[in-house]
Amino acid sequence: MSIAEKLLPEFDREFASTRKFLALVPDDKLGWKPHDKSMALGRLAWHISDFPGYALSVASTPGFSVRLEDLPKRRSAWVGKTRGAILERFDADLKAAREALATVPDTAWDEHWKMEFGGQAVFDDARRTAYRMVAMNHMIHHRAQLGLYLRLNDIPIPGTYGPSADER
Description:
The chain is mainly α.
């Protein structure tokens, strides 16, 4: 069994779980923040909708770069969006990301992958590490953050690795 074949069940499970959380984002609370230093709920959800694209990039490119001049536009891209637009964006790259992951040969997992932010490397390691950190762990971290935002707005949380307190 290839490395990619071993990763696909986790990919399917984690992205399906993340989509369940995104499907609960309330359109009337997109600007809500738990603290002044926190991201708005809509911005957080929009960022989470990036992760199929990140997974696709890790599986199919040698890296990517975000220019500093693009940051204001990226940070405000969620404004005026709805839960439907967030889910549409999440779904847009999901199939392609899964297909790309499925075709990564075992030898490619040790190839170099680099992410730059404003010309500075923020990640520079093997593709296998990029997949885990940039695509999966980062998404799971923000999904948990979204779960807290939902909880603080009295929205029942779905189970992730078993039933949630709301499902018991």
